[in-house]
Design a protein that fits this description.
The complex is a heterodimer of chains A (286) and B (253).
Chain A: H1 2-41, H2 47-51, E1 54-55, E2 60-61, H3 64-95, H4 100-114, H5 117-131, H6 138-162, H7 166-174, H8 179-208, H9 211-216, H10 236-245, H11 252-283
Antiparallel strand pairs in A: 1-2
Chain B: E1 6-15, E2 21-29, E3 34-38, H1 45-52, E4 61-70, E5 73-74, H2 82-88, E6 89-92, H3 103-113, H4 119-132, H5 136-139, H6 152-164, E7 170-174, H7 182-195, E8 200-204, H8 208-214, E9 217-222, E10 225-231, H9 232-235, H10 242-248
Parallel strand pairs in B: 3-8, 3-9, 6-7, 7-8
Antiparallel strand pairs in B: 1-2, 1-4, 4-5, 9-10
Helix pairs in contact in B: 3-4, 3-6, 4-6, 6-7
Classes of the chains: A mainly alpha (286), B alpha/beta (253).
Amino acid sequence: MAASVGRRQWIQRVGFASLLLAAVLTVIPIVLVVGIILFRGAPAINLEFLTAMPSDGMKSGGIMPAIVGTFLLAIGTAIVAVPFGIGAAIYLSEYATENRWTQAIRVAIINLAGIPSIVYGLFGLGLFVLFLQFGTSIIAGALTLAIMTLPVIISTSEEAIRSVPQSFRVVSVSLGGTHWQTVRRIVLPQAVPGILTGVILGLERAVGETAVILFTAAAFFLPSLPSSPFDSTMALPYHLFVISTQVPGMPIQIQYGTAAVLLIFVLGMNLLATIVRSRARARRQW
Amino acid sequence: MSSPKISVRDVSLKYSDGKESLRHINLEVAHNSVTVLFGPAGGGKSSLLRTINRLNDLTDVEHLSGEIWMDGEDILDAELDLIKLRRKVGMVFARPVVLPMSIGQNLTYGLELAGEKNKDTLDRVVESSLQAAALWDEVADRLDEPAIKLSGGQQQRLCIARVLALEPEVIMLDEPTSGLDPISTGKVEGTLQMLKNRYTILLVPHSIQQAARTADHAAFILDGELVEFSPGKEIFTRPRDQRTEDYIEGRFG
């Protein structure tokens, strides 16, 4: 008996240790990537780096046009993807009855999420840049990024809407509410934090995306900022690609600095999503 | 009885998932009185309530037949104005469900849905419905607080007040005291007694004792069938049907 208990405790310890190891091993790469890039990029980041145009064949000066371009692309993506995504999520969770048609829509959304970004890029090139003749432009990039972002926004919004207790809907209807009044006054306000989290995570993906804008929006170098949605733009991820692989003799400091700025953007959005979620959870009344 | 408020005629109901059902229910609900529906769980009491305010429209119903007449209209008519019906027939659920907003907003919610914007009217309704539900004294100075902060018994009286705010003609309560302690239960029952002078009340009680305490008329519903429908004074003292007697005396269910 005593031996058996000892053996079981030993197995327990080994099990615990291997689970801990697995957890630690997943954290290490993230810590290293973020740590090294921020550590080596930080010295390059100063006001001039963030606000000046590149100069001397991008070997000095700042990355302002790339930052502005990334902002513009993110805003354009949000303008297109947020209303469509939330609309689709409301339809799927509140109005659609479960049948083959809605199942097909769901399968389509899941598959949309799995398509490699280079394919989205080529699709955007074919449809928006060439066929619709938008040219390599912010609008073509934003539309393509929006399509890529939609599945994330739809599925997280649908999840958020579904998690609002059914009893609220029943009560609202029993008090003489129409379905739409119930959705607008009860369901959506309660789902907003979850929807917002999904929107931020979706846009985060768009901000870091390179392959898509390579085909649809990005320019190697522009001497001035874009002045219309039909202009092409510089953008952080593509700029990073350019200065890392296309320009000989690039100071490594600028490469790290650019990577760090992009990383800070993305991590900042992640942090924002986390804050939104935890604050909503603290305030939630159900 | 004089002309009934609600007249249920040969109503049969079956859900797609096969749970609960109603078989040929006939029932007359008298004006301004408490009619109690009692019987074992899953017998169809809640289903009958949810048919009367057409809340079952939100559920998968496989079969529904019969007629339910109220004020010269068939409630089951496909063309019926459901919004109007649900304002006329208020419902209080077993678990108090306060909406995620303030106490005051819970009370004005239904009226605002109907387009009422006048602040004086809304304020007046908040006070009068809370008075009627015997909750005013407890919450008068905290109407802006989230309703979820109220105790269970207060929440349930808030739900009753919320229904009263719509000035319904019929109030249906589905085991409104099932989650409450005896003191809160007493308060809710007291509220019901006050209300029955002005409203037609349909109650699914959470115990036989509650049924006996509150019923003017009582219907015993077993496995989707209405076994016996009598005045409350009779059914709990001299039940006519053996099954009613067995249930009341605790031999099953």
